[in-house]
Amino acid sequence: MSKLDEMTAYLPPFLTKLKEMAELLKAEAPEFEKQNNSIFDLTDQLFVTTATWGLERWEKILNVPRESGDTDEIRRLRLISKMSNIPPATYRAIEHALNRFLKNPSAQVRLLPGEYRFKVDIDIDDMQHMSELIETLENMKPAHLAYTLRAALNEPLQIKDTVILNNRRYRKASELKVGYSVTLNNNEVVLV
Question: Range of 98's domain?
Answer without folding.
Answer: 91-152
